[in-house]
Amino acid sequence: MQIKHIIAANPADMARKAANMIAAQVLMKPKCVLGLATGSTPIGVYAELIRRCREGDISFRDVTSVNLDEYCNIPAFSKNSYRCYMEENLFTGIDIAPPSTFLPDGMAADFDEECRRYTELIDRMGGIDLQLLGIGMNGHIGFNEPADVFTMDTYRVALSKSTREANAVHFEDGMEGMPTHALTMGMRPIMQARRIVLVAGANKKDILEEALCGPVTPRVPASILQLHPRLSVVYSET
Ligand code: PGA
User: CA triplet 225, 157, 36: central angle to 5 degrees?
Assistant: First the structure.
């Protein structure tokens, strides 16, 4: 296993260390493709990147971004959409060109067609240079939920009960407003990413151990990362 573990003292330290890796990627290859994630954990990472961009240390002018997932049937302008999350937490704070930022369209009339489009889009970009990941309490990455098989390319997924409960806190009307489905990148573009940075807080200790030290199985989707040649795990101890 070639996993590089980086232990951070606290969430701010974790954010700084993960931002260092993303900044290094952008400095090494200004025209890179960044795979981005949502959730609570990456927020500090994005705040760090915004700060560095404002201070003139890095520029995202030539970067293309492609997000892991989007809820189905939540309009992009709704504050609960991942598009809105990305605008608020990253895109409006950095100099990335808006047309170079991509998420699946959760309002597409034809989800199968949208999944095909997203898969082809990532292929046309030449794949992802650096993929940022969080990990769900059930071991999901993106919205690849525990299942009998790993799904390779973008697909429409039924969200698990535990994911819906965990994410419902972000919805004003709780479980009531929480979507039942999402569109997610499958494992192929994630595993083909040339570098992966996974961020996790102390609340993910148990699932992280299971994913990184247990058997590789689609029941623990993040366990597939054991097979990635350049995985860095930035874990906050507190
Ligand atoms: P969290 O989500 O950062 O909000 O815990 C992680 C995930 O579900 O991927």
Answer: 50
For 10-48, give the DSSP string: SHHHHHHHHHHHHHHHHHH-TT-EEEE--SSTHHHHHHH
Nearest to 43 by CA among 11, 66, 75, 70: 11
- C-alpha–C-alpha distance, residues 197 and 8, integer Å: 14
Q: How far is ligand 1, taken at its centre, from the CA of residue 134, in Å? A: 5
Q: What is the pTM of this model?
A: 0.98
pLDDT digits (tens, 9 = 90+) for 36-47: 999 999 999 999
Ligand 1 contact via 135 beta carbon (within 6 Å): yes
* CA dist 100 → 61, 183, 222, 230 (Å): 9, 19, 28, 25
Per the structure block, which two tokens stand in for 178?
């929480």
| Residue 1: pLDDT over 60 | no
Pairing mode of beta strands 3-8, 231-236: parallel
Contacts of range 164-170, beta carbons closer than 8 Å, 24 or more positions apart = 166/136, 166/137, 170/80
- Taking phi over 0 as left and psi of -120 to 50 as alpha, with beta for the rest, 39 belongs to left
CB 50 within 8 A of CB 93: yes
**pLDDT at residue 189 in the model:** 98
List, in order, residues 6 or more apart from 169 with CB less than 8 Å away: none
Tens-digit pLDDT profile for residues 15-60 = 999 999 999 999 999 999 999 999 999 999 999 999 999 999 999 9
Minimal-distance CA residue to ligand 1 atom 2: 39
Determine the Cα–Cα distance for residues 117 and 165; give it in Å rounded to an integer: 30
Q: Is the CB of 134 under 6 A from ligand 1?
A: yes
